[in-house]
Amino acid sequence: MKLQKNTLLKIHLTLVIFLIINFLCQKNFDISLNRKLLFGLKLIFYATGILLFFKTIKPFQKISIYFSLYLVSPLLIFIGWIVDGIFGAILGSIFLFFFAPNENLQKVENITIYKKFGGLLGRCCDYEFTKEELLIFERKVAELNFENVNFDKVPMEIKNDTLYLNFILKEYDEKGNVLANDSIVKLSVK
Length: 190
Known about the structure:
This protein is of the alpha+beta class and 190 residues long. It has two domains: 2-99, no CATH class; 103-188. The chain is 45% helix and 30% strand. It is built from four helices and eight strands. The chain has helices at 2-29, 35-56, 63-83, 86-99; strands spanning 31-33, 103-108, 111-115, 126-133, 137-145, 156-159, 162-172, 178-188. It has a five-stranded antiparallel sheet with strand order 1-5-4-3-2.
């Protein structure tokens, strides 16, 4: 039992360090692990936190307070959601910021388009374009904000390290009339 607890603790602490390093690299250098692999590591991190809570509760140890966060946080979010107030939205956004994966919209050759998770109170329609590097890494190429774009219907192609997006952008004039412009957006994907 002691060996199991020590192994779980080592896995958990290694994942904490690894996920923090990945987060810092993603924010500072625009490179991170593949999103699917990263989501799997986050699930293992969370599962080891819950298992370690049950391993440290008897006999009670101070570290079990830390591990209780993994069990209590979903309950607090659920209660906040039931109450249907700003408190639940804030708690949910904080929790889901770390664990919610970005939605994979489309893949063109080695470029993947993700819809970023902005939280329950975040703004709409932020998209992140990433390029695969060495099979397990992704490098952010661009980040754009478009409203009402269906990337399944947007023709895309890559020519000479440039991604061409051809879609219709909607603008509004002073009277509220919709002006639709056929647009081509060029993104360098070097």
